[in-house]
Amino acid sequence: MKTISIICQKGGVGKTTTVVNIGSICSALGYKTLIIDLDPQGNVSTYLNYDKNESSYSNAVNLLEKKINIVPGNIKENLDILSSNIQISKFNDEKIVGGSKLQQAFQNNKLDTYDIIIIDTPPTMSSLVQEALAVSDYYLIPAKPEFLAVEGVAQAMNFAKKTIASIPNINPIFLGVLLNQVDKRRSSYLEFVSELEYLLADKLLTTKISQTAEIADGPFYAKTVIDFKEGSKSKNEYFDLVNEILKKVGLYEEITELPDNRY
Question: Which of 78, 79, 233, 261 is the most buried (most CB within 10 A)?
């Protein structure tokens, strides 16, 4: 089992879009995948057209309350969800004292039946992000290709380092920075990427996700890149991203097509 957190204290950088599309592709490839939403806004549920107040199945609040017999909701084959809602906000400012709640919850529930767990986090530097890091093997920071994003990335990296140093027995690996909403026509783009490459070296992911209408409209239609037409630029870029991530986390098998040949 590999657990990956997507973190960044800046909103609007595509955390939820990244989580949903990575999860959708991994599940389509046959990896049993769980998405855990720790954001009080519950945008993962909204994107996937899942009722965030569904009471028949467990949610992320139940997980943080260390309940046992957690039963995630199902989105489709190989893709489950522990959704979030506003109630999770009560954990946002709690200090992690005596150990991480999620660490204990992971131990009490058989979540190791999943191949991949992806955690969406709130756009804050808070206890919920620390909880996510405490149970993660890896973490990824998405960012927009803008000058001020450099500072945001540095802040997120520093927060992660401090969290890792303050919680016993955790050591998530930094996967890198993912550039989202890229518009290569902007005159500053190449200069910005060059600066990030200098600062981050191999921690800047090779794959970049372009700014496209189909990605922006995806949540409205509850569509992930899996549903996009063959040859879609966004679909190809997200498959490249998943290839790159799977290679970094040791689950690599080059993706050339889905089982139903839609890629």
Answer: 79
